[in-house]
Q: What sequence folds into this?
């Protein structure tokens, strides 16, 4: 049951149809087995890059698709309905490209963005640390100038890094000064850099194909040409990127909820008890109606924030609202889907138990939903 979408252009509608075709033929058939085996889907990201689906939200002049954010997010949602780990990966990769696209020099854009956006390169976003999750100002990884400023030596540990060990570059935030908010800087660290290493993959309850590791910088030397923006701009770069990244997670969570709803509704029309389909019982039909309302509301919420972004208007509060609303909806809808399927929902014979496990982390990463409430309240009450 594909979502009923109102796309802004015929080109955008064609992109949705292309995405649905790729998802049906290349992603959905592989998802369950790949998740069970915890296989990192590198070839799938190359496929999406070749199709132009990793670059949609970026300008054409830097190798992007030149599409509005509302179009990009709906593509992410479609991917999430087929394979959540891949949708999260698409959102993360887009996040890693944002600092160069928005704050990089012309030379950096020309050198880095074509491969970043074309699918031949995949990135990781190294912001969080073991003791610095929601509190970005607590970052302790340090970048020290060497060779009269021609390079920086990075030392520290990053935590909860998606794609770590599988990517071509690491968009990394490190301290070049001691000021809590004005002492951070942003670097693009190439894979293979001496002193760059990784921990063992985290043993997570879901998103097994989204490999997450700690990243260690042990006197890793990075050329000064890989510094994005001016020294000390890292905090503003990171927070600006996260506003857009939260919308990516909101869209992915909505797609996951849509997938769970589709399975539940299909099952309810086929499963018979007491001589009739269980969908005919009012208690269950109302549960399905609430699930549909939650998914539809979530979609409207993230699209509103995206349209503000596309119009060049402030959208930080709306991004936080979208992340909160969409991920809470995903958790509720996937849990209710398990309930609709009853005992079968609790088994691995149906995907809804996996959807429920995958939904939980959406309430945690890109800023916990408690942090989203803090962001919303602060912006609401500051006048």
A:
């Amino acid at each position: 049951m594909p979502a009923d979408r109102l796309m802004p252009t015929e080109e955008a509608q064609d992109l949705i149809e292309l995405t649905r075709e790729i998802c049906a033929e290349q992603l959905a058939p592989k998802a369950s087995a790949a998740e069970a085996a915890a296989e990192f889907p590198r070839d799938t990201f190359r496929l999406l890059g070749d199709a132009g689906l990793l670059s949609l939200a970026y300008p054409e002049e830097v190798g992007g698709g030149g599409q509005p954010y509302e179009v990009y997010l709906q593509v992410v949602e479609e991917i999430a309905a087929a394979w959540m780990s891949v949708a999260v990966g698409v959102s993360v990769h887009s996040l890693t490209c944002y600092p160069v696209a928005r704050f990089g020099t012309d030379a950096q854009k020309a050198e880095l963005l074509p491969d970043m956006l074309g699918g031949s390169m995949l990135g990781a976003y190294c912001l969080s640390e073991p003791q610095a999750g929601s509190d970005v100002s607590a970052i302790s990884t340090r970048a020290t100038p060497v060779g009269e400023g021609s390079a920086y030596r990075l030392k520290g540990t990053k935590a909860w890094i998606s794609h770590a060990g599988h990517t071509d570059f690491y968009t990394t935030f490190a301290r070049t000064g001691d000021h809590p908010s004005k002492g951070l800087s942003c670097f693009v660290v190439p894979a293979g850099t001496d002193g760059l290493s990784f921990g063992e993959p985290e043993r997570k309850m879901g998103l097994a194909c989204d490999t997450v590791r700690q990243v260690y910088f042990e006197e890793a030397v990075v050329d000064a040409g890989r510094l994005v923006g001016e020294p000390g701009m890292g905090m503003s770069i990171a927070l600006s990127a996260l506003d857009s990244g939260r919308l990516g997670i909101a869209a992915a969570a909505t797609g996951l909820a849509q997938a769970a709803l589709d399975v539940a509704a299909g099952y309810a029309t086929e499963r018979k008890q007491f001589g009739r389909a269980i969908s005919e019982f009012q208690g269950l039909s109302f549960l399905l109606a609430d699930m549909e309302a939650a998914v539809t509301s979530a979609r409207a919420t993230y699209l509103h924030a995206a349209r503000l972004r596309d119009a060049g208007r402030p959208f930080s509060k709306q991004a936080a609202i979208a992340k909160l609303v969409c991920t809470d909806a995903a958790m509720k809808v996937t849990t209710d889907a398990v309930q609709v399927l009853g005992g079968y929902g609790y088994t691995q014979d149906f995907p809804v138990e996996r959807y429920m496990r995958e939904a939980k982390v959406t309430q945690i990463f890109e800023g916990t939903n408690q942090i989203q409430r803090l962001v919303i309240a602060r912006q609401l009450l500051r006048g």
The chain has a mean pLDDT of 95.
